[in-house]
Amino acid sequence: MPYNLSNFSMPVKLLFTGYLLAVAMGYGMALVQILFTHGMADGKAGLSLEDIVYSYYGNRSGSVLESKMNGSMKANAPDAERFQIVQWVRDGASKKEYEATIKPIVEQRCVACHNADAGGAIPDFTKFEEIAKRAESDQGATFASLTRVSHIHLFGISFIFMFVGIIFAFSTGVPLKPKCAAIVMPYIFLLLDITSWWLTKLNPHFALLVVIGGAGLGMAFVFMWIVSLYEMWVLPRKVGMDRRHSLHRS
């Protein structure tokens, strides 16, 4: 008898189900993380095309520091202190004014996270030079950060969909051609998603491709996830009940 999701042994079903549930939770946490980072780029709650443009292309009419003060970092300082920082940026971000009025705010509100021990992409705000860089025109994501995030996503998401695809491949309720399309589509949308980041960095009109790539990944994941769990746990019970009804009638 060929192996399929409905007739796998209980240990295998539990293994597959545990993986699918854990990955689904990770996917949900990733969406929440996107809302907390990119979703506040324009200073408003929720993810919009403007958020995507500001995140990758930048807000060329303002600075990174200003967009952060009105966006994802808005909750970390009172309105009056945020206004002081924004006004300092707009007035030219002079070192003299920084030492006089802005430095105490930064030390109280920012350096707990933005320090030399933070590492990664978090700037060290104990140094004036690091703050001055962020007070310049907002050019969006840097090519270095795009390279780092792109290779992490390509490796990580490819592995996730490889295992989800392996589990889904044992389904029997989906015809061959749609099944093959569902297995391949995540990789197509992943490549579109990553490519669209770089294109949006160069031209903001490509921001819609970021939405399409992300939405395609999500739909492919949800489809394979639901079908796999259905055939492991619901379908065997349904078939068993149908057989019992049939025997009862005979």
Automatic annotation (TrEMBL):
Keywords: Membrane, Transmembrane, Transmembrane helix
Stretches that traverse the bilayer: 12-36, 152-170, 182-200, 206-235
Protein name: Elongation factor-1 alpha
Organism listed in the record: Methylogaea oryzae
